[in-house]
Design goal:
seven-stranded parallel beta sheet; 14% strand; globular; binds D-gluconic acid
Length: 264
C-alpha cells in the first residue's frame, strides 16, 4: 500500500488571519490536502463569514472564529472553544500580520509596538495556548509566517523587520523546546507576493514595482498559491524530522545580491 506523505485527511488546522491574502491561499492548500480549516479573523464578522463561505465553495470544511490574537485572555478562551466545538488543533499557522511603512526616525513608539505585538508577540501567545494540547497528544505542527525581512532590512519597515527577524528566532526556540514532544515548528518566508498588503508598493509606475521584478531572479511577483506546497509540506508527515527551519518561497531573492536595473 502506498502512503501519501502529504495527505492531511482528518487533521484540523487553525490559520490566523486567513480571511484573505497569503493566509487564505495557504489555508486553501492545507484544506485541499484534506484538513478541516479553522479561520481566525479580527476586524469584521462579515468578512469572516464571507471567507468561511469562500472556503466552503472550494469544497473545504471550514469554521470561523473572531478574536484578537494579541489578547491572551481572548486567545485562551477561543482555543478552548475551537477544541471543544471543532476538535483538537493538529496544525497551527501563525499568519496574521501587519506592517507600517514609516522611517524609524519618524516612527511613534506606539506604532512600533503595535507591529511587534501582532507580528511577534501574537505568534507566541497563540502557540503557547495551542501547544499545551499538542504536548499532551504528542503530535503537532506549528508554522510561523516569516518574511524576507527575517533576513534583510529595507527602508521604512524597521518595526516589521525587527518583528519578523524575532519570529525566525522564536521559531528556532519553539523547535528547541517542543521537538521532543513530536511537535515540528518551522517557518515559511514569503518573498514579494501580489496581495493587498503589497498593493501600495506594487501599483504601476511605483519605483518599487520595477525594483522587485528586477531584484527577483524569477523576474516577477509571487502568486499567493505558490505558497501552498510549502504549507502542505510543513503541515504533513513529510516534514516529521524537519525542525526550526524557515522555508523561503521567494523566487530566489535571498540567493542573490541582485543586479543593476539595466542588466538582463
Ligand atoms: C515591504 C515588506 C512587505 C513584504 C514582505 C516580504 O518590503 O514593504 O517587507 O511588504 O510583503 O513581507 O517578504
Amino acid at each position: 500500500m502506498s502512503i501519501n506523505l502529504f495527505d492531511l485527511t482528518g487533521k484540523i488546522a487553525l490559520i490566523t488571519g486567513a480571511t484573505h491574502g497569503l493566509g487564505m491561499a495557504m489555508a486553501k492548500g492545507i484544506g485541499n490536502a484534506g484538513a478541516k480549516i479553522v479561520v481566525n479573523g479580527n476586524s469584521s464578522q462579515t468578512k469572516l463569514d464571507e471567507a468561511v463561505a469562500n472556503y466552503k465553495e472550494s469544497g473545504i470544511e471550514a469554521y470561523g472564529y473572531l478574536f484578537d490574537v494579541t489578547d491572551e485572555v481572548a486567545v485562551k478562551e477561543h482555543i478552548e472553544k475551537i477544541e471543544k466545538e471543532v476538535g483538537p488543533i493538529d496544525i497551527l499557522v501563525n499568519n496574521a500580520g501587519i506592517i507600517k511603512r514609516t522611517p524609524l526616525v519618524d516612527m511613534e513608539v506606539v506604532d512600533f509596538k503595535a507591529v511587534v505585538d501582532v507580528d511577534l508577540v501574537a505568534p507566541f501567545i497563540v502557540s503557547k495556548h495551542v501547544v499545551k494540547g499538542m504536548i499532551e497528544r504528542k503530535t503537532g505542527k506549528i508554522i510561523n509566517i516569516c518574511s524576507m525581512m527575517s533576513e534583510l532590512g529595507r527602508n521604512s519597515v524597521g518595526a516589521y523587520a525587527a518583528a519578523k527577524g524575532g519570529l525566525k528566532m522564536l521559531t528556532q526556540n519553539m523547535a528547541t523546546e517542543w521537538a521532543k514532544h513530536n511537535i515540528q515548528t518551522n517557518g515559511i518566508g514569503p518573498g514579494y507576493f501580489a496581495t493587498s498588503q503589497t498593493e501600495p508598493i506594487r501599483v504601476d509606475g511605483h519605483p518599487f514595482n520595477d525594483f522587485i521584478v528586477n531584484r527577483t531572479p524569477s523576474g516577477k511577483w509571487g502568486d499567493p498559491d505558490d505558497l501552498q506546497g510549502a504549507a502542505i509540506f510543513l503541515s504533513s508527515r513529510a516534514s516529521d524530522f524537519v525542525n526550526g527551519q524557515v522555508v523561503y518561497v521567494d523566487g530566489g531573492i535571498l540567493a542573490t545580491i541582485g543586479k543593476p536595473a539595466n542588466e538582463d
